[in-house]
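Why do we care about 3D structure at all? Because function follows from shape, and shape follows, mostly, from sequence. That is the central idea of this module. The next example makes it concrete: a single protein chain, its amino acid sequence, and then its structure expressed as tokens.
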Amino acid sequence: MTQLQSAQTGHITEEMTYVAQHEQISLEILINHIRDGKVVIPHNIHRNAVPFGIGKGLATKINSNIGTSEMRICIDEEIQKLSLSKKYGAHSVMDLSTGGDLNDIRKRMLIETDLILGTVPIYAVASELQKEGKDILSMSADMLFHEIEKQAIQGVDFMTVHAGITQNSLRFHEKSGRLLGIVSRGGSLLKYWMLHHDRENPLYEYYDRLLDICLQHDVTLSLGDGFRPGAISDATDATQISELLVIGELVERARKAGVQVMVEGPGHVPLTDIQANVTLEKRICHEAPFYVLGPLPTDFASGYDHITGAIGGALAASYGADFLCYVTPAEHLCLPDMNDVKLGIIASRIAAHIGDISKGILSARATDDQIAKARREMNWERIFELSVDPEYARERKVTTSESSTDHCSMCGELCAIRTDKKSSK
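And the structure:
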């Protein structure tokens, strides 16, 4: 059975027990949330990833995107990024490879990490066709579903599928007058295929076939936002909402079939629209876990979009987003390197932590209180231990104030905490 079917029948899985203990939440409450589709535990039956729960009442989770491109194919480098993702606190990784032998890359990643692993199957189809000198127009529905089934058997825990793009929603898009059009690779490929063949999106037309595959292997569906805005002026328009309405329908169909499902959210959204976007998703998609890219509340921070994403992510998480896809400094510019991956994860973890404090996640607030107590006691090792990046925090302190334990180079002898403690005696 899938995790959803288990919850519906009252069967407690090992993964549920682990998540309840890790999150310090009642097992009964957790099972109820899974049963209602408000929490998912992506956990393919063919591998043993560390189970993490995503959704209502749980800490906000972080995803790291890695993968090759046709311009840079270095599998060993991507495996190193896998290790960095684990080290710096990501809960899942998406293999977004589009260059090289994607099947071998995926198989190696599944072996090399115990993090939850996600993919976008249409990338593999497009890549294989490209090697044959063809483009996505040569894709058949069978090609796409065979790829999805192959990846499910290999052990992929969740898959992004852009099933909400339909002939009807395309009509809204064609009238939208967007500044930037479509920025989703999967969305653009499907639009191109659908318009050329004048056919319905196979992921929507044959959605039951997709559900059957996911049901057999307990693959969590991540319903992708193929019409997500790539510029803040395009946010929350008729194109985006038309797709979201279809996704709401698909969420219900997945749950009825016993398939776990979450919903992906917009990329570029002004601050004033973030709360509305979270509220709309929760209402239209029946409180399905919400997985957001950033969001990015401005378009002008090229090279610093990890900061932009952290600002938007903190707000989105505080309003109820459940899963943050990291944004790195390389966003919109190039394939991220090792340092980009590190900075992207840390920025998103900070955003998630801020959101969790706002949500009332007790462990988040407890961490901040423990750091405050350690600062009062000048317990530097405890401060480092509790911080988002202990190595970096320790390095900055030690290299600027040597072995001094009761002050740092910022205030020196005029340390406010030292002075306050003297006056409190």
